[in-house]
Amino acid sequence: MRFIQVGLEINENGWRFSFEKVEAGEATTEDFNLWLQNKCLNNTYKYDEMGDRLLPIGDKLATCRDKLCKQIDRCAAYHAFMTAEEILLLKKIATKVCVYSYEENAEMVIAGKVFRPVNPTLAYMADNFLELSQLYLALQNKAISYRRIDRTINNYVVSDFRIAKARKHYYAGEYRRCICALRLMRKVDVFQKYSLLFKAYYCCGEIEKALVALNHYLDVTTLKPISFRNIFSDMHMNIHSLDERVLEDLCDRFTNDAVNEMIRELDREKRIEDAAIKSALEIKSHYAKG
Questions:
Q1: For residue range 85-142, what is the model confidence (pLDDT) as tens digits?
Q2: pLDDT tens digits, residue range 130-155?
Q3: For 248-262, what is each residue's pLDDT tens digit?
Q4: Torsion over CA of 74, 76, 82 and 85, rounded to 10 degrees?
């Protein structure tokens, strides 16, 4: 859900904290509290020494809220074909994204005096974001349990749901279930299928099967390693602890420079996220003292 992803943004360049923990259903209130430490609604909240560290996201949240509510309103035309649980899920999501106002300014003038909040961050929204993530996962579970009613429905719709189901199993650490879901697929994006098969087999400890899946992926891709680097780094995998045979297969296909370029970029991304976590903890500590 785009609304939740906005809450995970690190900077204005599009970097964000990993969404994988949310997709795995493992995110906690403490996680969202940390991820929201470097956020504020708008520039009026950047009024103290921490201001330069705060990222204004109020406008983005308001845009996501309006778009999401409009889409949910359109679903009303299909209520006759939906279960009560599905309708209730959508209504809960619409309610949750409207809990807070995202357009308020920090300053409030009372009797000629200017008042501002003690803590300008959005950490107070942590519980709401957690509940939204849980509703998102519940809705996702409904979607991926979909079964094709007749042959007139686009096959790719069903395949997309199966990919989502397989990815969900992977992030939850259910590698065998991920593999089973992928092996049942016929018409599917081969890039997504084999990259996910590689990851699932690798995490199961079946290195040979993982290498077969990886080489199937490499057979069809025209990308350089830096462009598919995320295959080798996520919440379950680290490029620096991979079996040496994985890097050997990559070096057989690409130059050492291309492989090293990928590794350097993964290291750079890790440093950015680590720095963001460190900064968020410092912001949290600063306002806790107040």
A1: 999 999 999 999 999 999 999 998 899 898 999 999 999 999 999 999 999 999 998 8
A2: 999 999 999 998 887 765 555 555 55
A3: 999 999 999 999 999
A4: 100
Per-residue tokens: 258:
């291309």
Work out the number of other CB atoms within 10 angstroms of the CB of residue 32.
26
Q: Distance (Å, rounded) from C-alpha 42 to C-alpha 105?
A: 7
pLDDT at 159: 55
Residues 6+ apart with CB under 8 A from 243: 202, 207
Do the beta carbons of residue 164 and residue 140 sit within 8 Å?
yes
Helix intervals (H) in the chain = 2-7, 20-23, 29-35, 58-74, 84-96, 126-144, 155-171, 175-183, 190-204, 207-220, 244-253, 256-289
Q: 3-class SS at 21? A: helix
CA angle 68, 70, 72 (to 5 degrees): 70
Query: Any idea what the Cα angle at residue 272 is, between residues 199 and 192, rounded to 5°?
Result: 25
In single-letter form, the type of residue at position 53 comes to R
- Predicted local distance difference test score (pLDDT) of residue 273: 96
Domain ranges in the chain are: 1-145, 150-219, 222-290
Q: Is 146 exposed, middle or buried (0-12, 13-18, 19+ CB in 10 A)?
A: middle
Other C-beta atoms within 10 Å of 226: how many?
16
